[in-house]
Specification:
It holds the Pfam family NAD_binding_8. Keywords: FAD, Flavoprotein, Glycoprotein, Oxidoreductase, Signal. By secondary structure, this protein is an alpha/beta fold. The protein has twelve helices and 20 strands. Helix 3 crosses helix 4 and helix 8 packs across helix 9. Helix content is about 35%, strand content about 25%. The two termini are about 15 Å apart.
Length: about 450
């Protein structure tokens, strides 16, 4: 039996365990080592104001075949209830930190009319065409993987899909080449990317396109799972029969006599193969144990040099004051093209008891009480969280291998160019396919 250690119990780790069980069956003993006290990685829910709210890894897209197939296999479906709006304005806005650049109702022709009036029909069509073209190219990965294809490194995968150019240039350059106006890029596209990645249109083009597609520019719909997105990863690990060890922060991985020794605080074991399914950072910016550095010489060259973008989440029970937003009620979803107070704001529920709305702010820095006084002066409760949510997605970043060394695999390799729960799952499938092929190649012939 092949003993396999998977480091990390988020989207990549659970997908790797699930795929390895499918490929290797009972030939594999799978042990998942998770630094934190829960499964899910950056998919996380907390209790706030009487509700249970998603605060990270919040949404999936209807085109996410790996996540949707996995959810169906473990008996999970989309949440059926939309957020009740109450007295809140059913509109989407773009805010530049001083004034509302766009305010569009979300129903019927009024939404399109507002977008066309601000950005022009031609620019919107070109932006959508870019999103659709790149998403169609990406979607080829599913049929290729299902047919048994796998790639040694990220560069080879992107080449096979015709996406190498998109990964090597900033989104702004792709938009310029497509004839999309700077206003459309700087306001609409940047607003989406500040909400999704806490980054702007200087982001790598492929990651930017994925973000725009996730916002609906390539069609489809967004949703979360009714029992919480992290529940998917819990059930995948259980279905895979993996032994999950929480509170086990791995500190080192090193070769030993043709196998791999994995060390953690207070212990260690030797495995036939190791799948690293955690972000790789040389110098974590925070105390999140899931991002702690792992001492491993073969992995060292692939640490994310630019680090991870710190995201601050502030949940507020209360109604934003019109005085903070041009004197008008705030839309229930607000993107920002500038301003440093926050990067997005959205209605996520209503408090049990008070009936007040619950809003979620994303920001680069922690929102102080003084800042909240400006936007939500009458509030009942506040919760603050922060974590290193996304790599800084630099255009042309080094593209790591999925097989780092014999017996050592990187399930999060695609995070060099894009970071979503779905792309993590695709990345993990590729690493698992390489590992399974290596196991079969090493098996003695009967």
């Amino acid at each position: 039996m092949t003993r396999i250690a998977i480091i990390g119990a988020g989207a990549a780790g659970s997908a790797a365990a699930d795929r390895l069980r499918s490929l290797l069956g009972d030939e594999a003993a799978i042990v998942v080592l998770e630094a934190s006290d829960r499964v899910g990685g950056r998919a996380h829910r907390i209790a706030f104001a009487g509700e249970v709210l998603e605060v990270g890894g919040t949404l999936m897209h209807s085109s996410n075949r790996r996540l949707l197939d996995a959810a169906a296999r473990v008996g999970l479906g989309p949440a059926t209830d939309e957020v009740a709006l109450g007295d809140e304005t059913r509109a989407i806005g773009v805010w530049d930190g001083r004034r509302m650049l766009l305010r569009a109702g979300t129903k019927g022709w009024r939404f399109l009319a507002a977008l066309v009036a601000r950005y022009g029909l031609g620019n919107l069509r070109r932006l959508r065409r870019e999103a659709v073209t790149h998403v169609e190219a990406w979607n080829r990965v599913y049929d290729l993987q299902d047919a048994g294809a796998c790639w040694p490194d990220v560069a080879s995968l992107l080449d096979a899909l015709g996406l190498a150019g998109a990964a090597g240039a900033p989104l702004r350059a792709l938009a310029d080449r497509a004839g999309i106006s700077s206003r459309t890029t700087d306001e609409l596209a940047t607003g989406v990317l500040r909400n999704m990645y806490n980054q702007d249109a200087s982001i790598g083009g492929f990651a930017g396109i994925v973000g725009l597609a996730g916002a609906g520019l390539a069609g489809g719909s967004l949703f979360s799972l009714g029992e919480g997105n992290a529940t998917l990863f819990e059930r995948l690990l259980a279905q895979a029969g993996a032994e999950v060890r929480l509170g086990t922060p791995v500190t080192a991985v090193s070769p030993r006599d043709g196998r791999w020794e994995v060390r953690w605080d207070g212990g260690g074991e030797t495995f036939d193969a190791v799948v690293v399914a955690t972000p790789l950072v040389a110098n974590p910016s925070g105390a999140d144990p899931g991002l702690a550095g792992i001492a491993c010489e073969p992995l060292a060259p692939w640490a994310v040099a630019a680090g991870y973008r710190r995201v601050h989440v502030t949940l507020v029970e209360g109604r934003p004051a019109p005085a903070g937003f041009d004197g008008r009620p705030v839309p229930f979803t607000l993107f920002t093209s500038g301003g440093e107070d926050f990067t997005s704001l959205g209605l996520v529920g209503h408090a049990t008891g008070s009936g007040l709305p619950a809003y979620k702010f994303f920001s680069h820095e922690a929102l102080t009480d003084d800042v909240l006084d400006r936007y939500v002066p009458a509030r009942r409760d506040v919760a603050r969280l922060a974590w290193d949510a996304y790599p800084v997605l630099v255009p042309g970043a080094a593209q790591p291998p999925f097989r780092v060394a014999p017996g050592l695999y990187l399930a999060t390799a695609l995070e060099a160019v894009v970071s979503t729960m779905e792309t993590e799952s695709v990345s993990a499938w590729n690493a698992a396919a390489l590992l399974a092929a290596d196991v079969r190649a090493a098996a003695p012939v009967a």
